[in-house]
Amino acid sequence: AEAQDDKETREILRQIYENAREASGVIEDLMTFAEPPQPRATATNVRKMLDEAVQLTGRKTGREYLDIKIEVAAGVRDVFVDSAQIVSAIANVIANGIESYSGQAGPIEVAADATDAAERVKIVINDHGCGMDGETLKKATQPFFSAKPAGRKRGMGLAYAARFVQLNRGTLTLASEPGKGTTATIYLPQKQAFQPAS
Fold first, then answer.
1. What is the distance between the alpha carbons of residues 94 and 127, in angstroms, rounded to a whole number?
2. Strands across the sheet with 181-189, in order?
3. Taking Cα atoms as reference points, which of 70, 161, 158 lies closest to residue 109?
4. What is the pLDDT of residues 38-67, one digit of tens each?
5. 3-26: pLDDT as tens digits
6. What is the Cα–Cα distance from 56 to 48, expressed in whole angstroms?
7. Rounded Cα distance, 40 and 85, in Å
8. Are 155 and 166 contacting, i.e. CB atoms less than 8 angstroms apart?
């Protein structure tokens, strides 16, 4: 394209390059989703993990200020997860919540608490954005599904989040209502998985 003098030819070549790059990104997303790296679980501080997720959300959304409130209950111990994968998962959920607002960066409420069984930590991420109807909610964690107009997003954020949480022996559920917002509930293990003797 740079070697071309003709403006129209340059533009056509630029479009081919951009489309090829986008197609490559889609294939890379699909491959990463199909065969993600196995988690390297370690004891991870919940507050530190949530703070890192908020920082990553800022970079993902390109916003300097995010209206996010974090509360970690007393008695919440470390979770045993791959910190990088769970930080990415939580950041994707928060970013999705921010996108549900029209021109605002929140508010998003994030609360962590120990469960009754004391073997899992419950993390609730709540927004008051546009919410989702039942049909959208059912598809929300499917790869490449997006309620945004075509060409805006690849629709991998919540799919990645659900996949990474599942890989780390956790669960992610979504509840939503149009016009009232969405609540994502994540459960993460506090104990190391049993490793059979070799």
1. 8
2. 68-72, 108-114, 120-127, 181-189, 171-177
3. 70
4. 888 999 999 999 999 999 888 888 887 888
5. 777 788 888 888 888 777 766 666
6. 12
7. 9
8. no
Give the global pTM. 0.75
Identify the pLDDT of residue 149. 43
| pLDDT confidence of residue 34 | 62
What is the C-alpha separation between 24 and 183, in angstroms, rounded?
Answer: 33
Q: Which helix (H) or strand (E) holds 9?
A: helix 7-34
Nearest by Cα to 167 from 188, 197, 198? 188
CB 155 within 8 A of CB 106: no
Q: What are phi and psi of 114, to 5 degrees?
A: -80, 145
| Cα distance between residue 184 and residue 170, in whole Å | 13
Residue 65 near residue 105 (C-beta atoms within 8 A) = yes
